[in-house]
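Supplementary notes (optional reading)

For those who missed the lab, this is the record we used. Protein: Copper amine oxidase-like N-terminal domain-containing protein. Length: 442 residues.
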Amino acid sequence: MWRIAFISTLLFLGVSAGALYYQWDEYHTEATKQSVLQHDIEAKFTGKTIEVVHHIRGAVTNTYEVTVPKEVKNVSCVKQKQCVKQKNGKTIIHVPNTHTISLTYRVTVAQKEPLFIKEWLIRFHTTQPQQMNISLTDVVHPKGIWAADGKLVGYVYKPSFSFFMWEKKGGQTVPLYFQTKPLRTSFDENVSIYTTKPLNDAERSFWRQNGVQTLVVTPFRLQYMTPTFVIISETSSFSDVQRAYVRVQLEQRFPNSAVPEWIWDLLVSYMTKTEPVTKQAKRASQQLKQTLTKEEQQTFWTLVQTSDGQSLTMKKLDEWLGKAYGGNTTFFQNEEPYMTFTERKMLVVNEVKLPTAHVLLKDGQQLFPFVPIMRTLGYTVQRSGEAVFIEKDGARWRFFINGTKTVVQQWNGTLYMERTEFPKWFSVYISETSEEIRVIGQ
């Protein structure tokens, strides 16, 4: 709050908004490090446009690729001609050897309320760390609330204008919101909160713990969310808002993820401790709880949550699920209705390796692939409808797949026999090592 007091003092002493910005900047920051691309942005709202002066400091290269939003017009450079050029379909800005440059441009604003301006700043594409300091002077509304996707540093109201200041790490766009209708302003640690009525403790705790910097609860029907900036309607239910926000968080944590909607639903339901909405997510959640122990479930979710920065794929989800359970699965990739796994160990029958035959793990059972095992042991196996006929050295067996006492089971077109059933019917011995499952028989 000392920054707000400092800014207020300067304003009441008659310091202009532009001069204030630089005095504040000198006052509370060290010199910009050469490795940081510093954006010092002075903006003025005139009612129809936002007039922007965009200062850049700490450039480490003479050219930067930038994105100029379609709303931005009349881009030019102070003290430099033709610094903005088009090259191979990209917009390039040339920076002089001073490592600094100042741009001016104008953003047209729709005449309506509330004002919501999503794209209004030129964005620099670079791996260089970026820092943004933004000041906004509104010469039309001496009262009213401006909020931005950044940390509020200070604000002051004067008879002829209002003034706001934010700071933000990174070079992303910084959406702006304005309404003339008063809102309660409060601060909860690092969260700036604008509401029509006080939030309860659970709501405050949720926004605070999730790193939101600005929360606007508006009487208008508007919803917009980034991980740090949230605008919601006062009529929205907290549970719906919570799920929507967690979805935004997840999409940022796992960028460029090509997974179906039900996967996001499943992840959101876990993160919010709520029930899934989609049919497939409900089924997957049920299978996780039925098939995995609590410890295995926790291992799976931990593997997911500690993979920040990766793109989610169905294959990766299967890999994490397999690690948690201790087997291989295609549950997510094939969107299977039931969760099954196969042993990672090699199946060896009478010293013959069967690399394409796998022991199935299902419902707590080990199901052995019946046909390849029996044929490797020298049996003949034939199937007629629901009957399976086995023969060797004049001895014959017949099993029915869908009998009342099923010995041979069918799963996804493959016949299996449960491990404990084998010695009951055939002269076989089964053993395991850390790498192999061995079947020895006559």
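If you only remember one thing from this example: The two ends are 84 Å apart (CA to CA).
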